[in-house]
Amino acid sequence: MSTTETAAQDIPKVAVEITVNGQSYRREVEPRTLLVQFIREELRLTGTHIGCDTTYCGACTILLDGEPVKSCTMLAAQADGGEVLTVEGLEKDGELHPLQTAFSEHHGLQCGYCTPGMLMSSLALLQNNASPTEKQIRKGIQGNLCRCTGYHNIFKAIEAAAAEMRED
Amino acid sequence: MSWVGKSPRRKEDDRLIRGQGLFTDDELGEGMLQLYILRSPYAHAKINSIDTSAAEALPGVACVLTGKDVLEHCDPYMQLALEPAANIQDYPLARDKIHFQGEPVAAVAAETVGLAMDAAELIDVDYDMLDAVLDVEEALKDEILVHDNIGTNRTWQGVYEYGDVDKAFAEAAHVVKIDRLHFHRYSSTPLENNACVAEWTRQGTVEFLCNNNFPGFAKQLLAPGLRLPIENVRVRTYDVGGAFGNKIWNYVYMALAALASRKTGGRRVKWAEIRTEHMLAAGHGNERTYVDTEVALDKDGVITALRSRHLDDCGAYTRYEPLGCVIFSQVLPATYKLRNIRIEMNQAVTNKCPVVPNRGYSRMQQLWFMERVVDICGQELGIPADEMRLNNYITDFPYETPNGCVYDSGNYPAMLDKAKELLDWDKWAAYRDQARSEGKHVGIGIGTTLDSGTNNFGQAQIMNPHLPFSGNSEACIIRLDFDGAVVVTLGTGPSGQGHETSASQVVADELNIDPSMVTVRSGFDTNWNTFVGHSGSYASQFAVTGLSAVHGACQKLKTEMRKLAGFLLEAAEEDLEFGVGEEGPQLKVKGTDKAVNYWYLSNIVNNNNAVLQGALEDVTLNVRHVYRPPFNVPDVEKKFGNLTLTYAAQLHIAVVEIDPATCRVNTLAYAAVDDCGTVINPQIAHGQVHGATVHGIGAAIMEAFDYDEGGNLLTATFSDYCPITSMNIPDIAYGNIETPSPFSYNGAKGMGEGGGAPLHTMSAAVQDALHGAGVIVTDSFVSPPRVYELLQNPNRETAVSVG
């Protein structure tokens, strides 16, 4: 019997308990389940996307305990006990997050595939730095690819959201 | 009040910023199988045997597909080429031979993607490796054949000759010879990989949810490939995560999900491509080599004639090709007025990934070539790049090119002026001169480009006279729903271009209502949307074809609404005005308070028609319009005719400095000026220009599909290919001019592809920086290793000669 057959059949599932967007979920998963698979397939929160297989593109970025994480590069089991925030958790009581509004107003998205990951990296940036310079914004989203916009409108959107959040 | 020309917030955004879009991979379903494709590690090999027994025995595996299954259930996909290339056998899976690294060999459907991958590892394929042919010139020698049954690697050859080329060369003041130029392989790699969900129903139909960006066309190819009537194949898209042309031929692999569904008794099967698979096998942009180039010029540097041979490498299968061998001629003389041209166009298959239309498809390769010609001639003759262009630009419009294409409008000198102003040309020219005196490599490059849009499909007959294609068209249905809502369906399947928003702006203007009152159906569905054979989002045409269809449908709807409202209000049709009243959108008798709202009109027709007492039988408030641009069938023998309706233009200028230690090309300043005629939505148009510019800069300095001698792709992951990030882009000064197209109802020109302007611009700037060091930029890829090679081995002596 090959090792892969062993992996598929005989390894027991592991229990994980992860809080996502304020709600706690307990599931039994294959040990190899990636956090992004857990979020998308187990919890059916498909806003978090997958764009590559080498941790380059950032489409799967979420916040884990407040820190931005590429959820394709972490096992669900490693996030056991953690608190996850995804794009679906940004809107509160029917009110969009300033970043969401700003991305739309400044045309910071075209196809929208990178947008959820981009929003989460932007949020992490603004939580650490309320008034980032353009250079700091560039650095803050350097791990997130966008193939449509050419990035400039994303910079503008983040600047506008930062200003809005400072006022609030 | 006009909505066209404004930038209302996009309708698409509401779902996308909330993570509530429906990209294909977001479709989840209980009991859905996951498909994983096993791909060849070799570029060229014979398959001796495939043993799938261990994979099939793995619990959780539902089925395994091999070449045997496709032979049993599929016919090879239709080829566009003439014989013998028409006989290339293109199936969803390899049968007895591998033609490129990444070609599908087998496919596994299992309960989870992890299990499918486990099972694929258990498939034992016995290969005999064969020598691969990876270079187009080698391929044209036919010593190693990619497809044995066609007896050659050549897929097309034709000569485009206009004017009196030999006479012009005999009379020339200067003849510049350029040994060899090369446009490199890359693609725009949309962030969403290819994906589909397929179900082979008990009724014998196949339902696809997918992200193909030409779904009406895909259906026409998939159905015969699966031996089904076209009606039995439904192709649906919703949100598409970027396409850039690259998703035109993912139907080839979509068939595998359908076959797996068939083999498992109709279970739904999802195939979600992994990024490495995408890089290996989802399609690369056309790679082109230009040899024996000779340019005739008069004493003032005006180009009078050009002759050259172009060799296009289309990879292992033709698929959309050899269309690129004709598409380039939409912009044959680029933006220049020369009348004497002879280009011999050749194409061959090689053991590399097949090519796919990629943003700027085939025209960009021609425009880059022409810009290189202009800059190399200018630099060799000591004429500055701006002067060289002003000496040669086309200035009178409409302009008929030597091959019969009609450039609708434009003003290239004004774009040059505007770009110089945006850049602060004089400041940077002074900086360059100062920096050079200090021994630094600083250069300024200009790139002028065209984005030809709205194809005349008749050009396909230049490639293959037997193809029954010509003209172009797009369709739209607009209707009033039972509640009076204005509902629009389009034939286009967008992938981020904001069609829902732009279409609603046009409808809002026509009905004198707010865009928020217009519902444009998201996505595309061959069972739901209206469409024609040309429908789709490709070749920079929505602003012309799509919006003309919408506009035409609005006229038909308004005619019906006026008739009906006139009947109900007992008013003359000319006394009615469209607008919004207290009860929503309405028609009102001018100067009175007599009005009917849309619900009332719709309800009369749909639920309450006895009121009409048999009158107005032709009024349905559900109308379809097909827009057909005015095209003729080209003269196939002479390769002459108008191949595209509109010619948007872009002019870019870059200032670069080469880092002497790393050979990195640093962009110090960048300006981009766009002319897409009348602008429908400035924010969207600006966004398209920015996106295309950054794509092009990435392609010029970072992104390339490099193969080793064995045909192994060396840049098969994002981490190796390195798509451009926020850290690699310069600030881009943007401006536009508007020369309205006389050929579209709204003055708009199709846009979005951008014509690869940054590739031309960066090549020009690097050459300007390094010409003093004896360097001619002969390759469109100017990454640090390439620049290092150029500096180590200056090529001016061998690359160019002036007589």
Quick summary:
The complex is a heterodimer of chains A (168) and B (803). With 168 residues, chain A is of the alpha+beta class. Chain A contains 6 helices and 5 strands.
Could you explain the architecture of this structure?
- The complex is a heterodimer of chains A (168) and B (803).
- Chain A is of the alpha+beta class and 168 residues long.
- Chain A folds into two domains: 11-89, Beta-grasp domain (Ubiquitin-like (UB roll), Roll); 98-167, DNA polymerase, domain 1.
- Chain A is built from six helices and five strands.
- In chain A, strands 2-1-5-3-4 form a five-stranded mixed sheet, sandwiched between helices.
- In chain A, α3 crosses α6 (152-167).
- The longest helix of chain A has 16 residues, at 152-167.
- Chain A is globular.
- Residues 1-7 of chain A have low confidence and may be disordered.
- Chain B has 803 residues and is an alpha+beta fold.
- Chain B folds into three domains: 13-130 and 191-243 and 247-281, Aldehyde Oxidoreductase, domain 3, CATH 3.90.1170; 156-187 and 283-457 and 634-802, Aldehyde Oxidoreductase, domain 4; 474-627, Aldehyde Oxidoreductase, domain 4.
- Helices cover 29% and strands 24% of the residues of chain B.
- Chain B contains 23 helices and 30 strands.
- Chain B has an eight-stranded mixed sheet, sandwiched between helices.
- In chain B, α16 (499-511) packs parallel to α17.
- The longest helix of chain B has 28 residues, at 542-569.
- The chains are: A alpha+beta (168), B alpha+beta (803).
- Chains A and B meet through α1, α3, α4, α5 and α6 of A and α1, α4 and α19 of B.
